[in-house]
Design brief:
Number of helices: 11
Helix content: 25-40%
Low-confidence stretches: 4-8
Distance between the termini: 79 Å
Largest sheet: 7 strands, parallel
Order of helices and strands: HHHEEEHEHEHEHHEHEHEH
Strand content: 5-15%
Strand order of the largest sheet: 1-4-5-6-7-8-9
Shape: globular
Structural class: alpha/beta
Radius of gyration: 19 Å
Mean pLDDT: 90
Length: 319
Amino acid sequence: MVTLIDNSALKPRHPEKANRPDSVVLRKPDWIRVKAPGSPIYKETQQIVRENNLVTVCEEAGCPNIGECWSKKHATFMIMGEICTRACAFCNVRTGLPGPLDVGEPQRVAEAVQKLGLEHVVITSVDRDDLADGGAQHFADVILAIRARNPRTTIEILTPDFLRKEGALEIVVAARPDVFNHNLETVPSKYLKVRPGARYFHSIRLLQKVKELDPTMFTKSGIMVGLGEERNEVLQLMDDLRSADVDFLTIGQYLQPTKKHYPLQRFVTPDEFKSYERIAYAKRFLLVSASPLTRSSYHAGEDFARLRAARLAAMGRSG
């Protein structure tokens, strides 16, 4: 008799971080505190996610807003598995070699969107550098499946950078999501240590190219603060995004997932977030969300309605 032992549960979540020295995780200030999840609607959302065998970034990234969002039946689906080919120093998503794509996933996501009754859905993914198109066609398949089953639901996608994946962006844009989001995550001086697998100006160019391919598509990007960035670097990043005609900017507080992750340098105060918001609006972003608990998909449905209204107002002024 042969006994098979599954060692997958014993594998570290972040093998590339295992030998890093521990860093002190700073105590959260009062303005960061959130209520623990557990409402009946939260549990119903959780059950729908489980029944459809889906992954959410809410859980995988340890989002602090999961209690609030899931209690409103708002969940951000993370497609193409739960293992990422990148090893960003800030991220809590598991790192490693992913398995093959699940061809049934697009339909299951569409079914979950229908069960949750979502008017607006956010779809994100792990990085899939192992795939020839970086997962672009899978993104398109998910968008099309949601449209077929939920024609009134607006769709926002948060994509990887498709670095060195020629033609991938065109596939995703051709599927016509309502919002194309790609996060810069941090200022360029921090990329080598915080986001080593990415290239800052490639990400800027990706967002710019979305507008070239479809000028009507809303574009969005977000960063974390508290990583040691300087204020003037954040302001320059805003200018870089506006040069790419990005519509919507999100700025939130970096929260260090574990002692092995990139060390949090400081907690940015609510007043500083308000200052960033005022400056960003002065730089003519259509919409800005800047607060300690802001995340890419936080209040995404409400923000999409505000984004459309802001564009109409701007068109009225220019007309």
